[in-house]
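Lay summary. Proteins are chains of building blocks that fold into shapes, and those shapes determine what they do. In this project we predict the shape from the chain. Here is one chain we studied, written as its sequence of building blocks.
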Amino acid sequence: MPSGTEFHALRHVGGTLRVLDQTVLPWEERELVLRRAHDVAGAIRRLSVRGAPLIGVAAAYGIALELNAEPGPESLERACTLLKAARPTAVNLAWAVDRVRAADPTGDPQLALAEARAIEAEEQAASDAIAAHGADLLRDARRVMTHCNTGALAAPGRGTALAVIAELAERGTLELAIATESRPLLQGARLTVYELNRLGIPHELIVDSAASGLIASGAVDAVVVGCDRVAANGDVANKVGTYGLALAAGAAGIPFVVAGPTSTVDSECPSGEDIAIEQRDPEEVRLLSGTPLTLPGTRCRNPAFDVTPANLITALVTERGVVEPAAVAPT
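And here is the predicted shape, written in a compact code that computers can read:
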């Protein structure tokens, strides 16, 4: 279980994958023990494990778990198919699955585990680099807004966008982190505030609808968010509500920065129009922790993500450095 300011959202221990159940945070720190690929896929679908880089790492370990129980190419393909279908928008998941498959198509459990560990280590190193590059870019920002959750609960290491905020705080230049609640599942209110509190970073929580007005009022110096998929033209899919923040930041003339590892870049996806947007259960909108928020049977739309055009993004911060959105796709 986590202790102190540092913790791991997942860890491979004794042939199992142990993950913090993010559906019950911040009220309970419960660890789930996952033993097979279907356990990992289920945890990803119900958001017990979430965050684009983290679900990629989890899926990689999920393949290793399955092969540990049933080695061989048929088991490998079955696990890959199951895990890739768990969530459609974040490209990190398919990227990690394809890497493990390519490492050894025969389905050797030890080779799969070695590749999963390599992916986790690379993503952790990327997190540290993103934090440094992002903090260099936003060195003059004192009040920084962020959306959804992009810390250690979303990626190995310190995270992505929240890692930038943490680095600014560590350097002594950050006055305030402003977190949106991030409806409908409140990843900002539940998870980002949980992490900011553990890190001792001064913060405020706002309702999503207050964000644009605060930006317009001059109360925010920069906005930094994560990403679930970056198209080849620099368009970005991220938590629903991101597009509105980009529009508000552009109108106010403040930086709107996207932070994420290069594993989030999909060079085979031409533009944001080609990104599949996950549509989640309408009950997530109708209910909050089982309590009705509206009349039963009310028709609800629940897109998990939206797409922000590249021309609204000041910069993309990856482990390789700071680039203009259209220049991020690897060659």
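What the prediction tells us: The chain has a mean pLDDT of 95.
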